[in-house]
Amino acid sequence: GQAQVADSMFPKDAPYCDIDLTPRWDYDLQKAQLMNCQPEAAAADDHLPLILGLTLGIGIPLLLGIGAASFFYGRRSGYDRLDKEQKEQRKRELEE
Fold this sequence. Notes:
The chain is mostly helical. It is 64% helix and 0% strand.
């Protein structure tokens, strides 16, 4: 960067915001680089691929199976109810 380091919450040209905060910290590039480094042990313990694999490999097929079972059960009970209503209607028509 070529930009100026932000040392306040509001821009300097905003009304009543041209006051410097104390203490004002200097930017230390070496310390920033040191703080940005990840230890090798933390990188080795990354289980994200395993978690994603299990979630996608088990979770999605399970949800699809439950959805399909619910769909077919609902369709079957709907057809059963429709047949029952049609039989009752035919029965009433024959009685009249």
